[in-house]
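Take one record.
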Amino acid sequence: MSAARVRTWASLALQLAALGALSLSLLGVSWLDARSKPRWLVLVDRSASVPRPAADQAVADVANAVAAAGSALQRLDFAGRPGAPGPVGSAVAAGLEPSSTDIEAALHSALAAHADEALTGAVIVSDGQENIGDAVGALRAARGARLPLHWFAVSRPAPPVRVAQVLAPTRVRVGQRVQVSVQLAGAMDRPLRVDASARRPSGETQTVSTMVVDAGRATIDFDAGRSGAMLVDVAVRDPASGATIDAAPDAAAIDVAPPATILYAQGSRGSLSQSLLRGGWELEVVPATSLDAHADGLDGYQAVVLDDVAVTDAGPRFWNALVAAVRDRGLGLLVLGGERSFARGGYRGSTLESILPVSSEPAALDQPVSVVFAVDKSGSMGEGSGGVDRFQLAQRAVLETARSLGPRDSLGLVVFDVVPRVLVPLGPAEDGIAALARDWRASPNGGTRIGPALESAIAELERSGTGRRMLVVVTDGFTDDAPIAALRARLMRARVDTIALAIGPDADVRALQRLFGDDEGQVLRVSETAELPSAMRSGLERQRARVERGAIAVEQRQALPFHPRTLEGWPAIAAHALTRSQAGAVVAVQSRQGDPLIAFQRSGRGRVMSVTSGFGAWTPEWVSWRQWPALAGGLAEWLGGASQAGSMLAVTDFPGELRVEADLTRRMEGSDGDPMAITVSPPTGPSRSLLADTVAPGRVRAMVPDAGAGLYTFLVTTPFGTQRQLHLRPHRAETGTWGTNPALDTWRAEGLVTAWDPRRAVAVGDGGRPLDRSLMALALALFLCGVVVDRAGIVKLVRR
């Protein structure tokens, strides 16, 4: 064969080889260019709900299929958050938070890797049981980015017996039996025990166990002894070993409501409670002195009525809880006057008065008072009780009480044991307070003789001019052989009002009552020494308080806040406490002299009303008044005592948030304040008000950020009162799930994922991978070589 023919065939062969290399490149064949080699990413769920051996075996299967196809594979571990992509053989990434699953975050990491260098596909090894994030949104984003997703389902097998359903009432009353029904599913071929516990946010827990005897159903009863939320946990156990087979934490939430909608505290016998009970209202009537027992139980009442209740009837904890419930929860409050309320009940400057529409006047401004304090300094006053020095506490009580006096008042101080001594002569209160603040130059010592001390104190008061005279005696002893009749006569001649504070168990209260009188408030027993300052101040204010008495005409000044808004023919009253209306309060009914009788206002979310005459001995004609039923019933409903707050609340769970929708189902003409307000108390963090959007007349919607699983308490305040509703956001704990997420079928139907098939690893892809640059370079080189060989033959022919 000639040389020319050889060169021609060689050139043709080179060009055919170039064409073959180019064809292979166009067909997606990979050679030396790493960019064109098929790349796969396997996303491995390392949360606690996915068994580790099964997940590792799935990764090995994917790796084998990808390797057999000559493709590259990287691994990305994820749980509560994703790790970084790495080789398949590397250790499991650290810090993955196996207590949760966030498929969305893992897919976002895969999309970031796909954006840097195109992936042939991604395989997700998971059960799909997410409890953080929104997987559906991320799956759709992957489809938009043309990243094929394949699902390799791996899951924990279901337990042989599991809790299928827990049925419990959403609301019960205190005192009722709470019946909880537990339905089990699975193999019932062995003895099973159901343990259920009902726990409260305070930590109080009831635990009940029962055997499963009927078609996998167990019924458990709890006692609803106190109002408030009750959370139910359920567990199925082997009765022999006690091993837990399945558990359902926070399986149900039960709202235990108080036995009545209105808590009615009675300090003296009045007419309102009997009228409301006869009218069908639900009242829980309790003595005023038992209010401390309700400090933790105000949640759930619609309203509280204080009928002639003194501040000393309850401790600071109750009053703080009451004020907080009114302001923050919208509790209604009605305060009725009487001999033990307002100034006589120690309201002035108290926590209670801070939310009332009236303030208690200590005394008429034209009637100054002269006060002499007679303080026992015998040896027993210095011995202390429970580590407290009685004499030092008495000094503090005198100083705090003196500071409540006005600039026109006077004060003096006498200390005594067997002999009295005037430490501060009666004089202007301002000077006396300064003297009391200094060292008293007295120490407890000796016995007790009260007679000479009273003679000395009365002598000081007799020097005072016009105005009231008051004597405050503090002692922990008894009256020995004091001339009681003579002392009482002298006190009456000098027109001295007296208050005796008997400290501790040894004080002779009966003897003091014989000396000073047995009228209520004249002799006060102070069982706990720490109560002395408040008892002394409230006792003094009670004696100073003015009550207007006589036939007092009544007139309505403004509309009442309930229907009928105007009443005709108000009967006269026999007495009322003198008060002054607060700024912003509405005085609806007043005396002919202009003193408030019925006043109301909003205090935070709550509505508060004061009736300074009360509904008892001071209003003898009101019960027989033809308008009395309308007044009593309207008061109760306005305070929030109606069975419904006029709203419907619906709460829906969404990934990452809760949607709250509320409808105002009733209207009231002239209702004041905001039409609706919603407050939420999440499982963690403080309560907060929701910013709601109006979506239709009378309907609002708000979104609540996810604060985790657990109990959410919603309070809806409307012009009709306050409604409470519990919502239990379920736990989606990793250790409590099994099987695959049912949503996987929906995702497959939408084309968001496909089931993993090893043959998928052989597929080249959808043409999105770049052409192999090494094959293209080879094709070009072969083509050029062919051209050179062919051109070389032509050159030689030309030269010839």
User: Anything to note?
Assistant: The CA atoms of residues 247 and 610 lie 52 Å apart. The chain is about 25% helix and 30% strand. The first strand starts at residue 39 and ends at 45.
